[in-house]
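User: Please fill in residues for this 279-position structure.
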């Protein structure tokens, strides 16, 4: 079973019906055929309170999670795993213009690894995508191979008194409870210093991404790519300290949850420019 299989954790008849529909092979294949002949409708959102939590992981623990055609970034036997959580503001089609304000504002968390730049520069691959609104689960899965989002009904992501509290869960593996405090000291953890020369260099490497790969839900050896644009003002990126973190998936990889590199991006514009299958 693919990690992107819809996890209908409440197991009610509605959730079972949704899981059945979004996994119908003929619907997925029909959509892929139709989308070959239609222009991609660009998406846009204003995102804020963007919390980056990143860990170094022994690559031998995670290499086999992805197709053999995928080469993860690696240095000294380590790769980087990031959980990126934020609040969207009116995530919808760019052509709507002012009327995009009528679109909902989901909370979202993207779990990702980084692709070796020798294979392709500025590219990540999703481990998981989680949102708190069913509209984006259905639309993402039925209209796209690049956003097979999971649904977390209870999803907190709140900023208060220079702290950002995050909490959500979709199953025993994919859950996060974190509290980060925004600070001023740009401190690069000791374990990261052999890999990056400075705090700014590490931050730029993590945020400066133009492409996102995702395995197909029904055919995990195949991939689609989403082309994204996130214009960063690097001077606005804030150092942060993780006060508390709980993430069971990290324990499976032998990673101490508290050994985290954290920072916050206050807000920026986010664009999805295109999507297509990789050959």
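Assistant: Residues filled in for all 279 positions:
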């Amino acid at each position: 079973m693919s990690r992107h299989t819809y996890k209908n954790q409440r197991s009610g008849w509605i959730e079972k019906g949704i899981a059945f529909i979004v996994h119908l092979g003929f619907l997925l294949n029909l959509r892929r055929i139709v989308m070959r002949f239609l222009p991609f409708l660009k998406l846009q959102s204003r995102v804020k309170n963007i919390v980056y939590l990143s860990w170094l992981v022994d690559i031998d623990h995670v290499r086999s999670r992805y197709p053999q055609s995928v080469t993860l970034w690696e240095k000294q036997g380590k790769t980087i795993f990031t959980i990126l959580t934020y609040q969207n503001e009116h995530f919808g089609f760019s052509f709507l213009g002012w009327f995009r304000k009528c679109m909902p504002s989901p909370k979202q968390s993207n779990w990702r690894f980084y692709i070796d730049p020798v294979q392709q520069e500025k590219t990540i691959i999703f481990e998981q995508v989680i949102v708190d609104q069913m509209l984006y689960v259905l639309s993402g899965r039925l209209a796209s191979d690049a956003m097979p989002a999971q649904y977390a009904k209870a999803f907190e992501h709140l900023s208060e008194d220079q702290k950002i509290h995050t909490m959500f869960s979709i199953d025993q593996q994919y859950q996060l409870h974190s509290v980060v405090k925004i600070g001023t000291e740009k401190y690069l953890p000791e374990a990261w210093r052999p890999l990056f020369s400075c705090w700014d260099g590490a931050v730029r490497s993590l945020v400066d991404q133009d492409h996102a790969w995702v395995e197909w839900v029904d055919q995990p050896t195949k991939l689609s790519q989403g082309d994204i644009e996130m214009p960063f003002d690097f001077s606005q990126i804030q150092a942060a300290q993780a006060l508390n973190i709980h993430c069971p998936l990290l324990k499976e990889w032998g990673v101490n949850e508290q050994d985290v590199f954290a920072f916050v991006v206050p807000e920026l514009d986010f664009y999805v420019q295109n999507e297509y299958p990789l050959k």
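For context: The mean pLDDT is 93.
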